[in-house]
Design brief:
Blueprint lengths: L1 H14 L11 E7 L1 H4 L6 H4 L1 H9 L3 E7 L17 H9 L3 E5 L7 H4 L5 H13 L6 E6 L12 H19 L2 E4 H4 L15 H16 L13 E5 L2 E8 L2 E7 L9 E4 L8 H8 L3 E5 L8 H18 L5 E6 L2 H11 L4 E7 L14 H11 L18 H5 L4 E6 L11 H10 L4 E6 L13 H8 L2
Parallel strand pairs: 1-2, 1-3, 3-4, 4-5, 9-10, 9-11, 11-12, 12-13, 13-14
Antiparallel strand pairs: 6-7, 7-8, 8-10
Keywords: Signal
InterPro entries: AB_hydrolase_fold (IPR029058), Ester_Hydrolysis_Enzymes (IPR051532), Peptidase_S9_cat (IPR001375), SGNH_hydro (IPR013830), SGNH_hydro_sf (IPR036514)
GO molecular function, one term: serine-type peptidase activity
């Protein structure tokens, strides 16, 4: 049965068309506001907040960022002025082309609304500052979402009769378009679990409202299983997003296997993807989180663990992952697996960097200095460096983590005898399970195998 599946997968790979992507400059959108903008109360803010959904709706030509901060006010005399936050300053670093400003909910609190006469002036000041940015953004003013709290410091009556009229006056004075998120969330009490913050259904309505304002069109939109912009890759749904400021991708199989097994690349998504395509066809999710230029550093390990935890917590992936280390991706894959063997089912390495002194080595001055800086070490400390995969194999062997590795014996970039051969020899001495496939006469590229059945079979058996 497995042989039949592998043959079918191989045929699919050979016949699959290559996709070409052209990188274009994206339109930058900043969503500024309070906890409702941030996504407080949502189980998955990165996927379901209104700015996140707006980004999904707009697609790959836009970079939508969430600059919401819980509890904040436009009132500079309020209990938590937005202009005093660190996030406010980040908006200027972003230099957006479009800004959505959504305040008023916290401003309506009794202790804040006593400064109501300052509301229009403070909102005008915010508009003036943002309008003066180098990017000259188009600004939209949003009316606050409906509040369903019956007894409390935030009252919808104050929002309706006090906040909203003032926002409308400021919008009219500045000839800015209003985005009526109050009307969009009216009659949706059941979608405000705490009567203040929207669930993902109500957040979708807010995103639709913003989308209509931007494009002039209405759009039906299905809530997604994963965050980011949904596109196609090799016939499968692909989701592109950022996690802690770094690019990430999830490619979903047509029919996921029970338990949601997944294969994770820390570098070079889409390069020589024979194995990835095969695993998708067999029901695995293919996941990429770009840590390529962090050289397996402690920072990359921390980011990787945060990413892994998010995949488990929010998307229900299997607690044991297949790690896939291509080239410098091997630095992260082996060291992260050594630190987290209980989270790994097996490792697939392909022309892996196993000794940083071999690649980039001191001959590549730019990359070598980048490596030293990332690791925060000095040249003279390299004689005691223990961050290489070849130095961190004991935990893997003890945990009996199986490894399959592919390399060319004529690799001039990452020489086999300086990297994988040493790793394999040491792993075997530790009684670790490793299978090495040598490609005779092959340089660093191409990676993988034309017929990847041995790799796929190894993964399925572990």
């Amino acid at each position: 049965m497995i042989r039949t599946l592998l043959l079918a997968v191989w045929l699919m790979f050979m016949l699959a068309p290559a996709s070409l992507a052209v990188e274009k400059e994206k339109i930058k959108v900043a969503c500024i506001g309070n906890s409702i903008t941030f996504g407080a109360g949502l189980s998955n803010q990165a996927r379901d907040s209104y700015p996140a959904v707006l980004g999904q709706m707009l697609g790959s030509g836009y970079d939508v960022r969430n600059f919401g901060v819980s509890g904040t006010t436009v009132l500079s005399s309020g209990d938590s002025p937005y202009i005093n936050t660190r996030v406010y300053k980040q908006v200027f670093d972003f230099q957006p082309d479009i800004i959505f400003i959504k305040f008023g909910t916290n401003d309506s609190k009794g202790g804040n609304w006593k400064h109501k006469d300052e509301f229009k002036g403070d909102m005008q000041a915010m508009i003036d500052v943002f309008s003066g940015m180098d990017s000259k953004p188009k600004i939209y003013l949003c009316l606050p979402a409906t509040c369903y709290i019956e007894k409390g410091s935030i009252k919808d009556s104050v929002i309706v009769h006090g906040v909203i009229p003032r926002i409308r006056e400021v919008a009219e004075k500045n000839r800015l378009e209003i985005v009526d998120m109050h009307a969009a969330t009216s009659g949706m009490r059941e979608h405000f679990p705490d009567k203040l913050h929207p669930d993902r259904v109500a957040s979708l309505e807010m995103a639709k409202c913003a989308y209509r304002a931007m494009t002039g069109n209405s759009k039906e939109f299905q809530l997604q299983d994963f965050p980011g912009v949904k596109t196609k890759w090799r016939g499968y749904d692909k989701y592109d997003f950022e996690f802690n400021g770094r690019k990430a991708n999830i490619v979903a199989p047509a029919k996921p296997l029970p338990g949601k097994p997944w294969i994770w690349r820390p570098a070079f998504f889409g390069a020589f993807p024979a194995v990835d395509i095969a695993m998708l066809a067999l029901g695995y999710h293919v996941v990429h989180y770009d840590l390529a230029f962090l050289y397996g550093s402690p920072r990359s390990q921390e980011l990787g663990t945060l990413f892994y935890n998010a995949m488990i917590k929010y998307y229900g992936f299997s607690e044991k992952v297949v790690l896939e280390g291509f080239s410098r991706g091997g630095l992260f894959a082996v060291d992260w697996a050594a630190a987290n063997p209980e989270k790994v089912s097996c490792i697939y390495l392909d022309a892996p960097v196993c000794d940083i002194t071999s690649w980039p080595s001191r001959e590549r001055t730019d990359l070598w200095q980048e490596f030293l800086q990332e690791w925060n070490i000095k040249e003279e400390d390299m004689k005691n460096f223990k961050g290489n995969p070849i130095d961190n194999l004991k935990p893997l062997a003890k945990a009996k983590i199986p490894i399959i590795a592919v390399a060319g014996d004529s690799d001039k970039t990452v020489p086999y005898d300086e990297n994988l051969e040493i790793l394999a020899t040491r792993y075997k001495k530790l009684r670790g399970e490793i299978e090495v496939i040598i490609k005779e006469g092959c340089d660093h590229h191409p990676h993988s195998l034309d017929a990847p059945a041995p790799i796929i079979k190894f993964i399925l058996n572990h």
